[in-house]
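Posting this for the archive.
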Amino acid sequence: MVIGPLPPLLHLLGSESERVRHDSTLALYHLSLVQCNCTKLVKMGSMGSILTLLRERGRREIGKRERRERESEVGEDE
């Protein structure tokens, strides 16, 4: 029996390493472009985990952008 790449990649979403989570999310994204994989991901109930990771990453990126903007404003004041 072949389980395919989806279950191991979904397991990696729970990794403590941000890099591992990022890479597994990217791999899942590319696999989801094939309709049968997209259907399997939905049936496996994985969309909540994927969306949570994307929200977390988006929040981090927004925080980084805001810090850069504040730092550039401080630099302009000097």
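The first helix runs from residue 6 to 12. Residues 41 and 47 are 7 Å apart (CA to CA).
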